[in-house]
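Quick bug: Bifunctional glutamine synthetase adenylyltransferase/adenylyl-removing enzyme output formatted oddly.
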Amino acid sequence: MTDPPGAVRHASRLARLSFADGARAAELLAGAPLSWWDLETNEPVDASAAVVVAALARTADPDAALAALARLLAAPGCTGLREELEQRADLRARLLGLLGVSGEIAAHLVDHPEQWRVLVDDIDTGAVARRLHDAVRADVADPVTGTGGTRARCTGPDAIDALRTAYRREVVAIAGRDVAGDLDVRAVTEMLADLAGHTLQAALAVAATSLAPDAPCCRLAVIAMGKAGSRELNYVSDVDVVYVVEPLDEDDDVEPALGTGARLAAELMRVCRAVAWEVDPNLRPEGKDGPLVRTLASHEAYYRRWAKTWEFQALLKARPIAGDLALGRAYSDVIAPLVWTAAERQDFVADVRAMRSRVVEHIPVAVAERDIKLGRGGIRDVEFAVQLLQLVHGRGDETLRSPETLPALDALRNGGYVGRDDAVSLVDAYRFLRTVEHRLQLRRLRRTHILPDRAADLGWLARSMGYRPDHRGTARDVFDAEWKLHAREVRRLHEKLFYRPLLEAVARVPAHGLRLTTAEAGRRLEALGFDNPDAALRHIESLTSGLSRRAALQRGLLPVLLADFASAPAPDTGLLAYRTLSDQLGTTPWYLRLLRDGDAVAQRLAHILGTSRYVAPMLGRAPEALRLLADDDALRPGDPVEVLAAMNDVAGRQPDAAAAVRALRAVRRQELLRTAFADLLGRADVEQVCDALSTTLAATLQATVRVALRSVAEARGLAELPIRFAVIAMGRLGGGEVGYGSDADVLFVFENVGDATAGGEELATNCARDVAGSLRALLGAASSTDPPLVVDAGLRPEGRNGALVRSLASYRAYYARWSSAWEAQALLRARPVAGDDELGRQFVSMIDPVRYPEGGVAPDDLVEIRRLKGRIDSERLPRGADPTTHTKLGRGGLADIEWTVQLLQLDHGHALPELRTTRTLAALDALAKAGLLESDQAEVLRTAWRCATRVRNALVLVRDKPTDQLPALGAELVAVSRVMGYPLGSDPGQLVDDYRRAARRARKVVEDVFYGGRG
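Here's what came back:
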């Protein structure tokens, strides 16, 4: 049998208005008591009817809303509802929206049709308590409920029914305005929490009627916990409570009062379970195993001695909600100070994090992705992050001590503990997730926080939230996109805030240390070991004074940083450097955010500034390098190809040579800071540091050669210079062993590729001289913020008296005729580093016979080398220097080791190609493998070389100037030992002993090999 054509028309028309069963909708709309639809015209009967039908169509479930409305209008007591619906838009939005969202509330309204008026009347939250108490005929004026206080005059099942009806009336008033958008989510949760409090108070009056007339008197305070305590309650949620009991007279025996209090609490829970929700007392001391009620003194004793970390987190939201409010306030006065010192407990932060992890682990796999409360990116992620920040920072900042999540987020944002954008994202997500939770619970008035998996149910949820189809798809698609976006953002921010390394550091600071008043800060600075507390205090006042967000962020950071500065070798220097850096970067928007949010950036920066004078001047010119501290991977040495490409790129975009080199210096600065950071933080060994510094110096030379070639060509009016030009690295640069204080030892070589006449040769020579001079001038320009870069050509033929540049043929002629033993030894480290690659290779091929002579070192040359080394030992060691701790020229120092290695390379390099390396450690490996050094001798020299090189680098990092003398004592020795990895608090003299031991052993090998070898 088919539907008549009229039914099809009605179904089609109403289906377009979102009714699933158009025929049934037409039947209900056309029949009594509605009469809003004309079956003949297939239209609403009039304009008033049209607005009602349109409002029904906009609900989450138009069919359910329509069916409920028909039943409601047919019920006695609905006088005037039809007319009000037609005339009042606010009533249509509230009532019809509610009927489309909640079948349970719809059924309640059909049973109590007179309650529709609560959706029209002005909402009077102040009268809620009176209405609930009137329902059970109890006197609400007396807040002390027990045998000595208020009892209801309506008892038994009648009292429960009356209280349930009155409670539902208030829920209808709240929910109708909620679904209509008249209340924001915070107002809804606060009203529900207040309603719960008034319900508990009325239920307590009912519970009192169950006590025997001669029951001992007591005072009973009901302390709300969880969402009830924070005024963030859901429509359907357990109400977490703790009970406090005292006798009416403080001199009375406690036990009878406890007995009465326990019976009263148990009956209260039974009444509330029948009226609205479960009352859950399991957050009490000892949980389910503990007594239901306790005295105030018993509570205090438990929390002081036995409470676990999670219990203090729960107490953050505790507040008196019913019963004897004076006793409740006394409980709060006792417990609150304990809450705000809990973060100082050992492993507090780790315990809170572990608890959150356990919650996630216990979510059933089948619903984990749809759990908007406990799942990843859910409500708990927001709340746990906020609560942890509150408990850690709230010890010193009382503005953070709000039990409510949204006000707490506002306070955390205002105090600079959470970034503005992050706070906005969390607030938006939290409001969204709580609204979703409310809609899910309203549908059947059941406790749930699991998103439905059926498409139809998700569509209902989307419409209940006000979503409509748009370019992203159906309402369900739009909701799904919004939900996933919020969940991703919550999870990202949860991990950023909840696992912020700064939290552990703040938690370790005593509460009094977080309040940086002048007197307290001065005492703390003195206790921490600052040499000049007055100066340090001036720095702190400069950084934290005022009402700006910058000052607020500094007030949050400095208590932690002071402890970190105090752990560094030079606290005063570090704090001054931090103030200078903060003044320079004060207007840089990301600077303080990075210190607050970055992965241990603040602590790392404090350690670095309190240890190294080398770093601070560069940081002011390269603030972006601070981002490197947030990522261990970023501290790895830059790839040589990438570093050179970056330098060439920035230089190529500049208008002139000076600007190009300034840009090159910026890249060099970044790479030097990367290396220094890794070194100071123990993320790179000495070989990696030398490699990174050598790479940076080589790239700087390569890029600057290009700039110099272009600059000289432009100055001479040439499109291209008539030369090939190469820079040959010597010394530590040639060996890839550059330290922080190393010069760039080089040779300049060119070849004429233009006119071969005398004039052409002269032009080529002059061009090469101009390029070399330009290179040295550009890189040697003074800079107050960068380490100096001296290009030293002193190892060239004839030394400083010789020509700065030579042609390849001139070098060949010189080395063939005039080269001395020391020059051949110096050439052992020669390698091309910049300029023309082919010319560099030709130079190396030309010098190989010189530095690896056939037949080894001639006897006369051996005598000369030893004599020259002896002169260096006796004459070049600075006056007053300690030869046992001078890292370069002292006994067993770098010169001893390197000359020994180089002598063996000179003597055997021709016969053994594996010895032909410019690197000391690689040469030691090859010498041991070839049997020219015993393995233990090679290891002794290797250990001593590494130790001396590390000490030299550490000295530059600490002093910001090159030096080779290890101090015997003092603050600099402490700093050097820390840079080298000796632990905080260890005796810095251990470094001196270790160095001397390594050098002494190396000297023994040098005497055996260098001075005791052949001849």
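Actually, after a second look the formatting is fine. The chain has 43 helices and twelve strands. Closing.
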